Structure to design on (165 residues):
């Protein structure tokens, strides 16, 4: 009798596993992030340039001080140019108050900026609407830790969306 109960118990466990495994796999795949090109109505219309680029480096510390507005220059590798023209596959982009999520970064000083990016992280890919040079579009503090290293123009980020593959 004990042996019979053990056999039934094993059979129940195996059947349970066989039924739960497909359900678990379906749940995992349905919850995984879907690819997103970062395309939206703003990124495709703002600015004169639109690129998908990989953030290579953020030099210096991103300051999180609500009393201090500034643009922080970051280094990108351009993966695709959607509109306009850039001066090479490495570009330097100034982002306004980068400690703020792009969805809430616009203010009285700088109104036409935004995006869905929550935080900047090297290696992430972004779809960005840009203008160039930054000095024609932003008059304020600029933290540029690349100053003197490159004579390339600094681009001004208007709209920044995260790209997921």
């Amino acid at each position: 009798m004990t042996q019979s109960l053990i056999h039934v118990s094993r059979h129940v466990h195996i059947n349970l596993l066989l039924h739960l495994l497909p359900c678990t796999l379906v749940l995992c795949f349905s919850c995984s992030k879907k690819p997103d090109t970062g395309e939206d109505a703003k990124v495709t219309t703002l600015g004169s340039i639109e690129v998908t680029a990989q953030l290579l480096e953020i030099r210096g510390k991103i300051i999180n001080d609500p009393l201090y507005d500034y643009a922080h220059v970051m280094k990108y590798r351009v993966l695709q140019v959607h509109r306009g023209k850039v001066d090479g596959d490495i570009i330097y982009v100034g982002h306004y108050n980068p400690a703020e999520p792009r969805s809430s970064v616009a203010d009285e000083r700088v109104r036409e900026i935004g995006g869905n990016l929550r935080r900047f992280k090297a290696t992430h890919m972004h779809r960005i609407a840009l203008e160039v040079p930054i000095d024609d579009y932003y008059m304020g503090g600029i933290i540029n830790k690349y100053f003197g290293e490159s004579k390339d123009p600094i681009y001004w980020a208007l709209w920044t969306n995260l790209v997921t593959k």
Q: What stands out?
A: The mean pLDDT is 87. Strands lie at 49-57, 70-83, 90-96, 125-131, 141-143, 154-163. The two ends are 56 Å apart (CA to CA). Residues 1-32 form one domain.
